[in-house]
Amino acid sequence: xxxxxxxxxxxxxxxxxxxxxxxxxxxxxxxxxxxLSAMQGFWASFFNVAxxxxxxxxxxxxxxxxxxxxxxxxxxxxxxxxxxxxALSQKFCQNTKFLHRFFVGFGVTxxxxxxxxxxxxxxxxxxxxxxxxxAVPMWSLGTALGVIAGNVLPLRVVSALSVALYGMxxxxxxxxxxxxxxxxxxxxxxxxxxxxxxxxxxxxxxSGGTRTxxxxxxxxxxAAIIRPVNDDQQNEEKGAAE
Length: 242
Description:
Elements: H1 2-33, H2 38-48, H3 51-62, H4 67-77, H5 80-89, H6 98-106, H7 110-117, H8 125-149, H9 155-161, H10 163-179, H11 181-197, H12 201-204, H13 208-226, H14 231-241
């Protein structure tokens, strides 16, 4: 059971990892400008695993800000992962051990969260381990290679490679939208409100991560009020999927 879940995670983690490699390659260029070596870029990506968070980290290093400022900036930019982790915790069986929850939480990213939350039934931690086992090293390797040879490729080529990641994320989101009208309207609302939030004067100056957190809480709350999920029905669906 564990082996099958792990292999399924690896299978689903392959496109995630390939997309990560392309995005991290461009991130490595920023790391190089900040004065990081390939090995430093590798470990920074391995322990952070967040594009926006690492971009903030590398640009902060380049600006020579203090460690405290770097910690605060990285915390704020990555705060949206708290919401993802809380949502993902509801997918675990109640007797799932703390260590499993801890290590799964380490690998929570937008895309890994997407493929995990889309799985029916209770979430087997070994599925996440499989996805993490491929995606995170590819992310780290992409950053390291970006530091070494990122400036060899034109910036337009590197940016074009990252489009695959967004296409993959759409492939995760679209199928549930076709099955559930509430999810479809929630996703549509997130697209519209995310764009509007970049235009409104009082809101556009807020960091992208903070805007994401605020919109996620608002949209999720409205969706829960309009169409609450019955706990008994949810448990029956999980049991049937098992």
